Amino acid sequence: MWLNSVVSLLPLAILALALPSKDCEHQVKEAVVPPRGWTIFGPAPPDHIIKLRIALPQSNFRALEEQLYAISDPYHERYGAHLTKEEVEELVAPHPESVDSVTDWLSSHGIGEGDISRSPAGDWLTIKVPVSVVETMLDTKYHIWKHTASGEYIVRTTSYSLPKNLLEHVDLIQPTTMFGTFRKLKSTIHSVTAADSQIQSQHSPPIVDLATGVTVDASCNTTITITCLKEIYNAVNYTPSAHVGNSVGITGYLGEFANRADLQTFYADQVPAAAAANSTFNFISVAGGLDPQDPDDAGGEANLDVQFAFGLSFPVPSTFYSTAGSPPFIPDSGTPTDTNEPYTDWLDFILSHPNPPLAISTSYGDDEQTVPESFARRACAGFAQLGARGVSLTASSGDGGVGDGDPDPATQECLTNDGQNRTQFIPGFPASCPFITAVGGTVFFPERAVSFSGGGFSNYFARPAYQDEAVKGFLKALPKGTYSGLFNPNGRGIPDVAAQSDFFRVFIGGKPFSIGGTSASSPTFIGFVALLNDGRLKKGLPSLGFLNPLLYSKAVSGFNDITTGHNPGCGTEGFNATKGWDAVTGLGTPDFGKLLKLVT
Ligand SMILES: *[C@@H]1O[C@H](CO)[C@@H](O)[C@H](O)[C@H]1NC(C)=O
Ligand SMILES: *[C@@H]1O[C@H](CO)[C@@H](O)[C@H](O)[C@H]1NC(C)=O
Ligand SMILES: *[C@@H]1O[C@H](CO)[C@@H](O)[C@H](O)[C@H]1NC(C)=O
Ligand SMILES: *[C@@H]1O[C@H](CO)[C@@H](O)[C@H](O)[C@H]1NC(C)=O
């Protein structure tokens, strides 16, 4: 499905030379049915400035993908031979013919080289132009759309066109048809409740899992701390180093800010060595992302993520990325406002960075169907580029079980957005991207699947080879006809793995809270990935990079298979956690001790 082999571009090159783009007839590039919940509020102001992103086809993406799979396969001779930034950029660079055609087209609309900002590989172009100009360029009409339930306004269109000769030279242009915006980019927190100032001292004896012999404090059944996670996942007494070139990162969106004073309070509560060292994270602002440190600005999601990912991996150098969301569009203010899309600002930034963190967790996602497929594919291709450079990426699988987890009563759950309103299981993105490790949720000890654990199958991405056997085994064991028509049995299966996801003891604004959600699972898993990288770097081995091919092959025996619980949604009981991979907890939860032996 990945677009544009070099071969397919050749005849077009001739076409492009024959016709100056401005005179060429337009043809529809992409059209969508307006998603449920959005209605037209009025015409878009002609002087409203749009930050328009144009994606040129990555002419050699297939080669990048092949190399990525080779260097991520633990049985391949090139395992761990990560690519450099320059090598990756060469592989995703657009064909010169695409660059020239698009540049000529922009120039015919008065947009010169000085107005264009290009990504390092040249595969993304960004321009700032008024609505009136974009409407001519794309032969379309923008409107102000209102989201009925939230009252949010955005400027979008439902269809756009390009001169025929440009169709093959452009993958996508946004913002046009993308209605999944910042309101919908949900953090995957399921619940937040105030917690006791002290962890309830338990006089009960430790809990022993009779199957594995693992022993865990009794308090861990109701309150998850760093110590609990190290006990449950067999990492007690492992000491990582701050000096072997390791690193770990957390992304923040939606105005979620990580508070440094809260991190100190958390460390005093749970990681005394980090408290004694006043350990903190590097802060990086992406596209103007802020870093307010007032206790009132502390974000539950951001604090959960940094406290657990960095608490587990201390003293590994850590970074928090705050990516700005666009300010909401206010239709009667008359002020032209920028609009941008989730993920792309962060991907632009991180891909142009010479040394991104080796393990990065994201706890934000959206219903896959609200992200246009063309956009999801390009963002996913960006994640593949990071994987090729040796970066491991995890994302929460979502908090709606097999459904969309939308708490908004005005939108009906689990209906397709294609105008037909069919009932369907709704997977999440970016968890559905095959180059991300999707992390589902468990609860209690001994562990079982948590009911809200996001799981299911992508409608955009086909099942990747690395999980073919595991997922087929799961599908084969389903009773015949199970949920027929509700999910795509050939889609990428979600999640890949799981980790604890409820009762996390987090400090926000100086006070302890108990937080639940797969928002907790992803930073937990990345913490253990950082520890595994520590083990490898100490031995002079490269970082783990893109994890999935390893997880489904050599590393399978390093997981605790979760076989109880299920993830109801869309009026069904959802899927069951079963022996082997399942669409609730994936391969299971990490046994750090075993995984360390397998990867070092
Ligand atoms: C852990 O909590 C669950 C739910 O409250 C309970 O069913 C289970 O018995 C508890 N386990 C132990 C060992 O206390
Ligand atoms: C940590 O910070 C405190 C308060 O600012 C200071 O007194 C202490 O010396 C610092 N400790 C280290 C190890 O830097
Ligand atoms: C789908 O739902 C929308 C809004 O609820 C409605 O306007 C539309 O007619 C429905 N379409 C079909 C095919 O039922
Ligand atoms: C889940 O397990 C229950 C109990 O064994 C069974 O009745 C049900 O059919 C299973 N559901 C699926 C989707 O496999």
From TrEMBL:
Keyword list (alphabetical) reads:
Calcium, Glycoprotein, Hydrolase, Metal-binding, Protease, Secreted, Serine protease, Signal, Virulence, Zymogen
Top-tier EC class: hydrolase
According to the record, how does the cofactor bind?
Binds 1 Ca(2+) ion per subunit.
Task: Tell me the superkingdom of the source.
Answer: Eukaryota
- Where does the protein end up? Secreted, Extracellular space
The protein's organism comes out as Mycena alexandri
Listed under GO biological process in this entry are: proteolysis
Give the matching Gene3D superfamilies: Peptidase S8/S53 domain
Q: What is this protein called?
A: tripeptidyl-peptidase II
Gene Ontology cellular-component annotations: extracellular region
